[in-house]
Design goal:
Layout: H1 3-10, H2 19-36, E1 44-45, E2 48-49, H3 51-62, H4 82-92, H5 119-130, E3 136-139, E4 155-159, E5 162-172, E6 180-186, E7 197-203, E8 209-214, E9 224-234, E10 238-239, H6 245-281, E11 283-284, E12 287-288, H7 293-321, H8 327-352, H9 363-373, H10 380-395
Parallel strand pairs: 3-6
Antiparallel strand pairs: 1-2, 4-5, 5-9, 6-7, 7-10, 8-9, 11-12
Length: about 400
């Protein structure tokens, strides 16, 4: 081999996880297998963890030393990077023990937007949230402005030292438990998402804030519709500069889309475990299902897609941890992760036949949850539309 070849060979890419991430993965996997999967059908009351189950799982989780894994070190957390986080998220997703939205047991869930607060806001909102004293919700989606935030109808009009907010938000998860909401509203509708949207912190007990109703869904989540009627919000409760709201929300959504993709890894892997095990046990017409080519190909297709998704997720997470823009990668991670995990659940359900429909097994919940994930935090079609502009800009 010549010198040039030696140099190329020596600088080859390394696709192995660092030792500390592999240890983290193994630790969380053992926790899920031992503490979550055996009781996964007993932990929830609808879309919320039962109090006694939350206490039990939080106590077990705390012993792992992962409390505050997604909180920066300067605020007392572990400050894990995105590679570590997607590893945790994918392993937790192998079980339905936790609610599909907002069910973290490793400490309070802290929105990334809150890390953009100023010093006074940090003392008032961020630190109490990290300590578990305050809960939040994100109010962005509207009845007529879900995937198109630029057409947002909720307005925040400045009047001296405060803003007056009017509008309606819909599909707001955990609004009933929230002490405050991170509200995304239009401050200049003529500018749309290009400088016309701002972010605010609004006390849920403020005069004019009203929970209208919770929405019944095919999944366990029960999001709320919230009305804002002449709600006065002090200027000091605006997050960042006026017009920066869409930027802050998109940052949160990019991390959220990575979480979607990581969740897809866990769902596909669990479906492979369930499907393979059942295919070996179930005998039809004198042979195990595992010897049927139709079943083998379903399992192989999911196995292929699992490998593809892992590469996509860890590539994007590595870029994020190195300070690179991952908007396109986050879009792809969500599109591929949500769609293929739903397909994997559908295949697993097909392999199990009638038992796949039974609530004894987690398959039907994976199936319902993953279908819903294809719509939330960016419908697949809108993400593809945005990606199309990216593709045309690069290759056009």
């Amino acid at each position: 081999m010549d010198d040039a070849s030696d140099a190329i060979s020596g600088g080859g890419m390394n696709f192995d996880l660092p030792d500390e991430i592999r240890i983290l993965k193994d630790t969380v996997r053992k926790f899920v297998d031992k503490e979550m999967i055996p009781i996964e059908r007993e932990t929830r009351n609808g879309h919320k963890l039962k109090p006694e189950m939350r206490k039990h799982l939080e106590t077990k989780a705390k012993a792992l030393g992962l409390a505050g894994y997604d909180v920066p070190r300067e605020y007392g957390g572990l400050g894990l990077g995105l590679i570590a986080k997607v590893t945790v998220w994918s392993e937790l997703a192998r079980s339905i023990a936790l609610p599909s939205r907002g069910g973290d047991i490793f400490g309070p869930n802290v929105s990334p937007i809150l890390y953009h607060l100023n010093e006074e806001q940090t003392k008032k909102y961020l630190l109490p949230t990290i300590r578990g004293e305050l809960n939040w919700c994100l109010a962005q989606t509207e009845p007529d402005a879900g995937g198109d935030p630029g057409s947002m109808q909720t307005t925040a009009v400045r009047q001296g030292d405060h803003y007056v907010v009017n509008g309606v938000k819909r599909f707001i998860t955990a609004a009933d438990d929230a002490h405050y909401t991170q509200l995304i509203a239009a401050t200049d509708r003529s500018k749309g998402s290009r400088g016309g949207i701002s972010a605010f912190i609004v006390d849920m007990k403020s005069k004019g804030v009203k929970l209208i109703r919770s929405q019944e869904l095919v999944v366990d989540d029960r999001p709320w519709e919230i009305a804002f009627d002449d709600v006065k919000v002090p200027v000091e409760d605006r997050i960042g500069e006026e017009g920066d709201g869409f930027k802050h929300a998109q940052h949160w959504l990019n991390v959220g889309r990575m979480r979607h993709g990581a969740r897809g890894i866990g769902v596909i892997e669990r479906c492979l475990e369930l499907g393979s095990s059942y295919a070996k046990q179930r005998v039809t017409f004198g042979k195990p299902l595992a010897e049927r080519q139709a079943v083998q190909w379903m399992l192989v297709d999911s196995f292929l897609e699992l490998h593809q998704l892992r590469l996509m997720i860890y590539d994007a997470a590595w870029k994020y941890d190195h300070g690179r823009d991952i908007r396109a990668e986050a879009y792809m991670a969500k599109i591929f992760g949500d769609t293929q995990s739903f397909v994997a659940a559908d295949r697993c359900m097909e392999i199990h036949g009638g038992m796949g429909l039974a609530t004894d097994l987690p398959i039907e919940k994976f199936w319902r949850d993953q279908r819903s994930m294809m719509i939330t935090e960016g419908p697949i079609e809108i993400l593809k539309m945005t990606l199309a502009r990216h593709v045309l800009r690069i290759y056009g």
